[in-house]
Amino acid sequence: MVDFSNITKNSIEEAIKEFDSLGEDSFYSLYGFFKEKKYSLLYNNKTYPSKAILGIAYGFENNTKPLSPNDFSGGMSGKNTAASVLDRLGFEIIELGKPQKGASRGNLERNIFGEIPGVKVGQLFKDRKELSEHRVHTPTMAGISGSQDIGAYSIVLSGGYEDDIDELDYILYTGHGGQDNPGGKQVKDQEFLRGNKALTLNIQQNLPVRVIRGHQVEYGPQNGYRYDGLYYVKNYQKTKGKSGYYVFRFELVSSQAYENIVNTIENTFKDEYEVPERVSSTSDKIKRNQSIVKKVKELHNFTCQVCGEFFQGVGDPICIAAHIKPLGRMHNGPDVIENLLCLCPNHHDLFDRFGFFIDENLNIMQLNQELPKNPSKKLITNKKHMINPEFLNYHKTQYLIVN
Ligand SMILES: [Zn+2]
To answer: Ligand 1 centre from 344 Cα, in Å?
Structure first.
């Protein structure tokens, strides 16, 4: 059995740094761990895979090879399991489906990510109070439950926003704020605060959000509210809504297949509504053209167009073909090489979250600070790789809206 008794906080923090500098995907592929399902380590408001972090920290601590997933167990049961070792060292562990530690007394047992034990998908609740009592959605007024430091636990669709789009397994959900009264008219721009900010953390940390439909919306139940399962937040944008004011919109994709949702909840649909026809596939199912992915990486010799760095992985070099105008239905970017950049994991992450933009002269720009490791401050280019300025401009517009 692996002995974790000498593991220090320091080596855990070192492993966290390693995760941050490689980026999630490269970290998993380099060390052979899998995405964490149940136990996450919460550190500086960001979640990390508890088992993988401990395995890599073990290598740092003992100056040896990192552990592999088969060398030890994850979870909380037993003294030598990953989450319990981290817990003992004083790190905060989030268990999906369990109350969060550190919640204030009144909120204890209330703040939970993921499924609520004992609550089934499709279950009906007579009103907001009952939803709250069952901890499915604790606030009795607000549409988004969560904290801008941790993420969103749940949302309620109750028809309060004219810009919502609902296709059952795919939802464009309007953030909160800017109305003259709850459910009323949009009278000003929404702000990047509270629930809106919380939902963006779900993207970064891949945390699920519970979705509840009210009787007010098309696919809601006849009466009251219905719990419709877990969704993942895939994208967000700030865009002019129907009223002419800026609203935040979040793209939510169900964790279940469309057919499963329909089968589970169709008996609660209102009489006047037919089961909707499948509209189109979700952003998850977009197939990327692998030949242009390969081509753009080769044209740049697998180095980052922002920092010029080359990272050798175990097998292949680590670099990412990143879309400038994002794919998916929200942004609708095309999968063509003129819409791709070759980036290292860090700059890919930053670019995707609109952490910097590239101007018409290919200067790498941030409004408030300079990008590190970028002495020339210009995108590294290759004559054979044309980039369409229209896509750069789209990305810049999104950057300016969010920042
Ligand atoms: Zn880079």
So the answer is: 4
